[in-house]
Design brief:
This protein is mainly alpha-helical. Helices cover 80% and strands 0% of the residues.
């Protein structure tokens, strides 16, 4: 009996792309969190990841060959705002009720956001 693959090729490319974006985002957050507030650090990290992420997901994850359109950009920004808001609210809330480091809290919320982003990018942005 043949086993089913864990991920299809699009999902595999998405995971690899997210890994690169995730490292960039978290390094940016870690460095900026030393000097700036959590919301500002998260915003800078998110913008850094989003700028590269749009093109990485378009070309690598989803192999989208369509021209960049304002509609695609707007959809991508809406997904970005959603993810940013979920993570920020999670960090702000859990940093006030626990002793966990904000980076640990951020990582936990990223684990929730990443699969949701995949579905939104695949079926809403790059469909």
């Amino acid at each position: 009996m043949a086993s089913l693959p864990l991920l299809n090729s699009t999902q595999f490319r998405y995971v690899l792309s997210m890994g690169l974006i995730w490292v960039l985002d978290n390094l940016t957050f870690l460095i900026t969190a030393i000097f700036l507030s959590t919301p500002v650090s998260l915003l800078i990290a998110r913008i850094t990841g989003a700028l590269g992420g749009y093109f990485i997901h378009k070309k690598v994850s989803f192999k989208d060959t369509e021209k960049n359109t304002i509609g695609t950009w707007i959809k991508y920004v809406l997904v970005w705002i959603f993810a940013y808001s979920v993570v920020l609210i999670g960090i702000e809330y859990f940093s006030t009720i626990s002793d966990l480091h904000i980076v640990i809290i951020k990582l936990a919320f990223e684990c929730l956001v990443i699969p949701t982003n995949y579905l939104l990018l695949k079926h809403y942005v790059y469909k």
